[in-house]
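Re: weekly structure request thread

Next one in the queue (338 aa):
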Amino acid sequence: MDLRSAIKEIRSGQPRPVYVLYGKDRYRMQEFFTSLTDQLLGPDEKELGIVKFDTAETLIEEAVLEAETMPFFAARKIIMIRDQTLLAAGKDSKLDHQPDRLLEYLKEPCETSTIVFLVQADKLDERRKLVKRLKDLDVLLMFQELEGNDLLRWIMKRAQSQGRELSEDAAELITIRCGHNLQQISQEVDKLCLYVGDGGKISRTEVDTLTIPSVEEDVFALVDAMASIQTKRALELYKQLLLRKEEPIKIVALMARQFRIMLQIKELEGHQYTPQQIGSRLGLHPYVVKLSAEKARRYEASRLASELSRLAELDFQMKTGQIDKVLGVELFLLRMGA
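Done, posted below.
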C-alpha cells in the first residue's frame, strides 16, 4: 500500500482494520498516526478512543482483546501498538506472544476498531507468518527518509500550511544545516514562520540569519576560503570552530571528506555526468554538488589528491601524538595558503 492511498481511504471514512507503519522516518510515522486519529476521532473522543500497547511489555493477545471490545463514548477505537519484536527483523521477544490470536482476529475484524502498529525498525521479518498475512492484506506502510526534491517539497509544504511562502533555495539551506532530521527541520521551519508572520516570505537570508550553521557547513566555508587563497579568513573560521569545542581531528576528517567530494565530482564531470547524476551516485544533494563543483574547478585533480594525502598524514600524526592537534591544523591551513 502506498501512503497516498492510505490517506485517501482514511479521509473518506473507510479506514482498514489494521495498518503497519515501519521504516527509518519515525517523525512521519508519528505524523501519519496523528493525522489518522484526527480524521477518525473527534476532539472529545481521543482520550477514551485511543488505547496504547507496547509488545515489549504486553502480550499481543491483550491488544486483540481490546480491539474486539466495542468503544465507549466514542464512535471508533484506535489501538496503537509499539513494536520492536513481533514484526521486526532480527528481534526476539522476552514475552510469549501468540500471533495466531491476531491472525484469527484479522479474519473477521471489528468494524469499530483500527489497529495501528508503529514498528521501531527499518524493515520487517517477512519470514514470519503474521508479516506475510499483513502483506497480503496490503496494509504495510514503509516510511523512508525523504531525500532530494521530496524533502524540499515537504519543507516548503510545511511553511505553506502555515500561510507562509518558503523559497526553494531557503529549503536547500535548511537541509544543509539540518540534514534529514525532520524533527529538527520542522522546528526550524516553524520558527521561521513565526518570525516572518502570516503571509510572509522566507528566503535564504532569513534561514541564514535565524538558523545555526552546521559543523559541515563551517568546514565547507573554511575549504572555500582556502580555495580562494584567503588564509586569514580560513584561520578565523578554524578558531570559531575551536571556540565551539569542535575536535581538530573531526575538523580534519570533514576537510578530507570535502576534498574527496571535490575530487570525485571532478572525475565524474570528466565523464560527462550531470549534477543530478553525480548527486545520486555520491549520495549528495544537487545543491551541495553544485557548490562543491564550483570549488573543485579552482584545483587540478592532482592537487586535490595531494591535499587528501597530506590530510591523511596529518590525521595519523595527530592520533599518534606526533604533533599538537590544534597546531597541526593551523600549519596545514598556512601551507595551503602559501
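The chain has three domains: 3-142, 148-210, 215-337. The mean pLDDT is 90.
Next request, please.
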